[in-house]
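Ticket opened by: R.M.
Priority: normal
Category: complex prediction / small molecule

The reporter submitted a protein together with zinc ion and asked that the result be attached to this ticket for the collaborator who will pick it up next week. Submitted input follows.
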Amino acid sequence: MPKIVVCFPQGRHKALTMSYDDGTLSDKRLVELFNRTGIKGAFHINSGLFGTENRLTEEEASTLYEGHEVSAHTLTHPTIARSPREQIVYEIMEDRKRLEQMAGYTVRGMSYPNGSFNQEIKEMLPYLGIEYARVVQTTGGFGMPDDWHEWKATCHHNKQLMEHAKTFVELHKSQYLYLMYVWGHSYEFDHDNNWELIEQFCEYVGGQDNIWFATNLQIVDYMNAYKQLKFSAACDFVYNSTALSIWLNVDGNSVEVPSGSQVKLV
Ligand SMILES: [Zn+2]
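Result attached by the on-call engineer:
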């Protein structure tokens, strides 16, 4: 039987993803930086607060985030662990509806507003069409999450970002999948007067062609598609019924299993 492990697209074993919350005006500068350096992110937005205080209008948001992921953060940013279930459902479903109208695709991810969640909320999310949810706790590491509804980032950008980036870029053991995940709020760069931190980071990691730059949801979709592959009992062939190409490493060789195809593995 061949030795088979999943890889990221194009046979890579490292991915970087970013998550920025609240949809504030400072996202303009951050998205421009991401676009210039090829980095992808998820932007978790309260659609009920468009155009208030320091937040983007819906019109601004509708074009700004093209090429990135627009994702849920509840309609009005309540501390949902203190809210009635009816309100939680409304806050998430209405946010999804408005963001989907704007973005034109299904909104299936979220980050917890104020980092607030509990076990019951986690268990509700799949019924509300939410496939992942990011928390504010971090790991300091580069592993894949084992609970998509309690997805911990590697670090907040103010916690040793460049040290983590250097460690990540130098990782080379291809027997592992490595994910670096950075979260924050773009307005913090204004408050802390440290835009040079994220600029230095994006210029350092951007353009490294052994890293897959992906939105949060692209990573979830890819790993879910991998799980749907139909391997023969002998693992000598595999059928990919999904809409995504999946890359495997088979006895040390990179193999693409295209969408809708059956591929021989030995
Ligand atoms: Zn927030």
